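Progress report, Aim 2. The chain analyzed during this reporting quarter is listed below.
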Amino acid sequence: MTRTSHRRAPRTPLAALSLALVASSCGGSDRPTELRGSSAFVTDEFGCPMASPMLITSQGETHVLVPGTDGFLRAFDPDDGALSFSVEMPVAEGHVTDVTAPPVLFDDSHLVVALQHISPTFRRLDHQVVVVDLETRALDPAFPTLTLSASKPDYTGTATVDFLPPNAFSRSELVHANTPDTTRGFAYVSYGNTQDIQPWHGWMFELDLDAWASAGVANSAVLLTTPDVRCGTPGMSGSRDMLCGGGIWAPSGPILHETASAYEIYVPTGNGLLDISNGQYANTVMRVTQGLDFDPGCDPVACASFDTADPARECLDSCSNLFAPRLMPGEAPVRPESGACDDMTLLECYAALDWDLGANSPARVSVPGGPDVMVLPAKDGAVYLFDAAHFGTMYDRETVVAPCGAPGDLCVNDWAGMMVTEPLVTSVDGDPVVVVASFMFDHTHPAGLIALRIVMQDGAPTLEPFWTAPDFATGEALDRFRRHPSRASLLTIAGEPYVLVVDVGPPGGRGTLLAVRVRDGVIAARAALAGEGVRYIEPLVIGSRVFLNSCNGNPPASGHLEAIDLALEDAPGL
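Predicted structure tokens for the chain:
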């Protein structure tokens, strides 16, 4: 259920904002129109909202729910931004509850929420999961609060790897999956670690929601991506080491794909050690199913003498359930202008620059006349195309932005890479089109939205550049996207689809919402936000209204929710 009427006058401290280029004609008329953005409301300030806003229904009314890093879930009226209700997460006196990972609904009125308790010294104390009943607007007592814990054997079977709360952080969107033999299905909660403080690993918890409600015990399976205890110096960052790691932290989360009889989950993992021979899967995409038992499906002979710096192509090609990044045959090595990766293999370059593959989530795309494929943007500035049925079959690798940094122009945050996003999938003239958001922490290289067609060529799918926005040949592409942007959303007005993205503003400044026409990459509207915006979030679209978070710095700073209306209006002078 959505609601787009505006029965009360919007309350906003801003004057109406509107900027646009000629966008389209309306209703079959030849009269030129413009797409204009105007502020609908800005809420009062509250705890910094780092998770994407989401649409919920409570007591028969539609609301926009925003989790906060202050331990509250807040629901706002989508018409005027008034606070409808809030739910406080459990917290001990003197501590703070942080909700950064976007929650997930398992039915229309129950929300699974992952939270982490933080001490006054910013030490993470534990990780819990609760269920919120949206009808009672409170924690559901049928689901006792879960405190997550786990221990798994290392790859040798002689030591144990423990889930360490201070060395784990939940940022990834939660996943829910149904099965025919369950009432409520399963929820999945994922963990990496901020700053990659050792020892850290990737963890995924499978929660049986029926068992949780009936017996209070929900943890039915655990995935550990790097089962090793040799993780370097405790308390030090391992972000540039090839040890342990494999955090599951992509903000858009692991991706669920439902099949005819079951489901599979695509799990992107971050930097650390890739060693298939020892069951360590950093910098990969793993295909898992219910129960989280993982078999990479790789040829043991081809992978027997595994080179962790430069894995054999024959090994990686053989894997049915595991994708690992590599260059195409004959492709030149990655050589940033900074010289940071001179004489390095691709995976060594990943380690040197903290270019963990798990920053991005893949998208599954059906190609007319071809196979289903997976599209994966990467921190290294490339988009990977591989087979959805057999992950080891890589069709293409298209570099869409240059590595950050140039002589005399330092990449101020080389660890950030150039993309942390999820592809938006749409189509133009029957061809699948994917759009990814890039950024750049230098002043030499362009960045922004990049659209790629997926076309069949010589019997195989390939990526074909379509457009960039801003046009990479213009100065705007050097001025914008100098920080992590939001993810992309899709909005359709009068039959015309637009891609929406927030170019997050500088500290203390204002971000900009861009609406880009899908068919040609024209920026049809630019609307200033009331605040900076928030990196990684997915703008929420209800009708022609766009809901966005802003945070005034890092938590525990304050922030707000705002809404911008996009509408076609007559062009000036007509």
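The longest helix spans residues 346-353. Residues 1-29 have pLDDT under 50 and may be disordered. These observations will guide the mutagenesis work planned for the next reporting period.
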